Amino acid sequence: MAEPERFRLCSTCRKEIPFQGVYFVCSVSTCNRPRLGLFFCSVACWDAHLGEVRHREAWAEERRAPTRQEWAREQAGEPPAAAPEAPRRVVVAPPTSPSPSSSSGGSAEVPRDILIVVSKLKAYIRARTGMNTSDGVTDVLSDHLRRLCDAAARHAGEDGRKTVMDRDFQAILR
Q1: Residue 3 lies in a domain
Q2: Exposure of 173 by Cβ count < 10 A (0-12 exposed, 13-18 middle, 19+ buried)?
Q3: What are the φ and ψ backbone dihedral angles of 159, each rounded to 5 degrees?
Q4: What are phi and psi of 88, to 5 degrees?
Q5: In-domain check, residue 49
Q6: Most CB within 10 Å of its CB: which of 2, 15, 95, 152?
Q7: pTM here?
Q8: pLDDT in tens for each of the 174 residues of the chain?
Q9: How far apart are CA 47 and CA 53, in angstroms?
Q10: Does residue 1 lie in a domain region?
């Protein structure tokens, strides 16, 4: 049997995914069945696949293709030589606008990252209420948390401290 030239083809654009190259899979188990096996060369191709399916919650998982030898052993039914790496979760987030300068008068840009653990927030809301949580909630909560942190830092500064403490949050929430 001839040696394959590539690991797989992208399920969306049909671009070749080389051996030892990075590729992405859908986090939804129905997209990862052995007979279906969707593979994507980029997050953009994974995102295009979302238009055809109805996932409630999904993300792209980054994987690394095996070497040619590992692939041949796998096709022959032999066990893998080493345990595979844990997949890296890649979440596509909308671009955010630049943040205003910090309240301390500095001109450095403050990162506009999400400040909460999204999976834990969604699990909490579902456990308490049985409701789902929109992805837009994370930006709103992060902005609110930034305002609380800025106010607590001002309170600590007014007390002559350089450490924000729990009592600073308690003081502003009264």
Answers
A1: no
A2: exposed
A3: -85, 0
A4: -95, 130
A5: yes
A6: 152
A7: 0.44
A8: 566 778 889 988 999 999 989 999 888 888 878 777 889 999 888 888 887 787 878 888 889 988 888 878 877 776 655 555 555 555 554 444 444 444 444 546 777 788 888 888 888 999 999 999 888 888 899 889 999 999 999 999 999 999 999 999 999 888
A9: 10
A10: no
Q: What angle do CA 131, 134, 136 make, to 5 degrees?
A: 150
**In a shared domain, residues 15 and 82:** yes
Last residue of a domain, one of 67, 90, 113: 90
The 8-class DSSP code of residue 119 comes to H
- Altogether, the residues listed in the chain come to a count of 174
The gap from C-alpha 159 to its chain's centroid, in whole angstroms, comes to 38
Same domain, 110 and 169: yes
For residue 159, the one-letter residue type is: D
